[in-house]
Amino acid sequence: MRRVVITGIGLVTPLAGNREASWSRLVEGRSGAQKIDKFDTDDLPCKIAAQVPWTSGRGGGEGDPDAFDPETVGSAKERRRLSEFIIYGMGAAAEAIADSGWAPQTDEEKNRTGVLIGSGIGGLPEIAETTLTMEAGGPRKVSPFFIPSALINLCSGQVSIKYGFKGPNHSVVTACATGAHAIGDSARLIQHGDADVMVAGGAEGALCRLAVAGFAAAKALTTSYNDEPEKASRPYDKGRDGFLFGEGAGVLILEEYEHAKARGAKIYAEVLGYGLSGDAHHITAPADDGDGGYRAMEMALNHAGLKPEDIDYVNTHGTSTPLGDEIEVRAIERLFGDAVKGLSLSSTKSSIGHLLGAAGAVEGAFTALAISNKMIPPTLNLEDPSFESEIDLTPLKAKARDIKYALSNSFGFGGTNAALVLGRVDD
User: Fold this and answer.
1) pLDDT tens figures, 46-64
2) Has 354 been annotated as catalytic?
3) Which one from 181, 259, 303, 317 is the annotated catalytic residue?
4) Of residues 46, 155, 170, 176, which has the active-site annotation?
5) What's the whole-model pTM score?
């Protein structure tokens, strides 16, 4: 089986508009939580989110040299034809491609380079806005760019068109597991010889009044920390009351190992295992025994040829919901057995919130960076754990650790689960 490595990383997160600043601020223990400034929240039960900081000042980006600059994606006119999830995805893809140094020149090289970027919700804000436009002005007021701006696969499509990548052009939609599935599916395409390089990840720009109202109605969002946004995302803590809505994108360049080695590419980590499963239980709630997540992790370990005791770090799904957090940890304890005593885990959602379809990709990137930088990001706001565990939950502060193998979990509505095993490349 062909080996797959990560040779480029691009990030647009609530912490910053690029990879380096997002990682450094994550390790510093910074939070991307804030009061929503994109729209009116007066009548909404949740008034906070983890917004991407823009150079325009939106999302707290004013004066921040590492804020996201949408001009790098396209002009204002061009961006009006794109949903924000596409803008974020294209921004992250541009950084990842530049970081990798991969610039195919020949038709064969372009044919062997594919794109697989997914989203959980896609162009929901455009759907909501266009519905109101049509109700007010009739069908003639609907933009011809409405449909291609909202379709989830158009993030992959736009990246493919911009760079001339003619390999597999694909997308995946599995709610909050999307980003992890995109990475795992892309790795398989390379392993099976369908591509040599894949631009893989997830993007989400669904933050709008309709989305907040919908998630709040489903009792999924935090509502107790509107006056203290930075305290809202608190995985494993007794005070958690729901997830913090986030936005952004994560894109990885996956590459066949010999292909990367031949061109002297830097390597962050290797994609060693991929597991996926279904709960077949409930539309929003995980099974009480965490069986779906357990089986996804078990499959990923089996594909990697590793045992639980080989894993040093787990980047958990850890959404800060009352039900899901403990169920995931108990599934990890059941799978790892006595090996939990040497295990560290953390939830980076404590810093960036829940990026929905982008979460698995951003967290996969953070896991790769944890391996390459020998550093475990912290679980912020974990002041009073709601349960006892022998696992090191990495509360409040990052910890230096030599990480050889790591696991990243992503679970979604509908009972969809994904797990990735990444490892350090020593040869």
Assistant:
1) 999 999 999 999 999 999 9
2) yes
3) 317
4) 176
5) 0.98
Q: Catalytic annotation on 282?
A: no
> What domains are there in the chain, each with its CATH number?
4-262 (3.40.47.10), 274-423 (3.40.47.10)
pLDDT in tens, 154-203: 999 999 999 999 999 999 999 999 999 999 999 999 999 999 999 999 99
Separation in Å, CA 421 to CA 40, 373, 406? 41, 17, 6
- Look up 317 and say whether it is catalytic: yes
